[in-house]
Design brief:
By secondary structure, the protein is α+β, with helices and mostly antiparallel strands. It contains eleven helices and twelve strands. It has helices at residues 2-19, 22-38, 50-58, 61-81, 86-131, 182-202, 206-220, 273-276, 298-301, 313-320, 325-340, and strands spanning 138-139, 142-149, 160-167, 170-178, 227-236, 239-245, 251-254, 257-260, 283-286, 292-296, 348-354, 374-375. Strand 5 and strand 6 form a beta hairpin.
Amino acid sequence: MSQVLYHGRDHWPRRLVATMPVLPILIVAAIVLVDLICGSGMTWLPLLAVGPALAATTNGPRGVLWVGLLAAVLGAILGVRDNAGDRELAVVLAALLAVTLAGSLASALRGRRERVLAAVRSVAEAAQHALLQPVPATVGPFQVAVRYSAAAAEARIGGDLYALVSTPYGVRLIVGDVRGKGLPAVGTAALVLGVFREAAYDEPDLLAVVARIERSLARNLGSDDFVTAVVAGYPREGQLEVVNCGHAPPLLVRDSVVVPVEPDRPAPPLGLRTLSGETPALQVLPFSDGDQLLLYTDGVTEARDHAREFYPLADGLARHTCDEPVRTVSALHDELLSHVGGRLHDDAALLLLRIPHTTATTAPRTTSDTDRVESCSP
């Protein structure tokens, strides 16, 4: 018990110092010092109101009141010392009182808004974990790494989407980008992910999975809304199926050479097939030990620096490729943020697959619902 009390007494001064309005007190002290040196009567005393006004932006109501009280006491002492008139001194003290009370109210309102914002952030984080689940280090035969950054940092969730599912037909995945931002984009991303997870487990054909998503979006999206996406599957050892629906081409890394996987036949984004009449095509790639595939959204390739230069993703991938996807993706993400100066202006997602040399892959096996692995960005 004594140890607990000791620690409580030990932390109390630290908490007091942490919450003390140091800068406002220093400003009040500086004004008092200038008045003492210059001895200029009432010239400097009105500036004491800067103390409680500044405290309102950095401290709680109690801190504002303490700074206001300190400024009022020191102002009264200096006013008497400088032989200020009663009327002038009363005006200064009344102004200090008014600024202190207004600052306390503003501080209380600011604290309330901060608490509301913290609650909203916690809800956004819960929604993110429900929609975009943490990614396991391995899914089927693949090593997997992912990084996701929402343009609205306060929301921590955006319109980019991705998922990996282990199914009876092999590992399947989707990476997509919803047109627009905000809650409508999040709702569309949730719709796409929900349909993909069900269809990927039910449909033997990867094109049938894409068709299920297309039909669902056609029923639920507006005429101007769409989703660009790459849907991929690994049905058997050494073979990767890719369907590109208006999305940026994935980057294939083989023997340290980076090659974009351009679609054999360009297809429109999901949700626009009825307008164009074109259907996506299935593209089959060899994909074996040591190969890596990077899927990403346009928030990565369209990120610009201060000179308006786009981020060279292929060059960055060639520089940072290694045998650990987590390290590769982390290096790319850090370099991307450095390129744009620290903050992205669009949602950005990076997802990297790799088949390790030491892992012997096997034919897909039938899994139950409890064996299924699903993942999305953190």
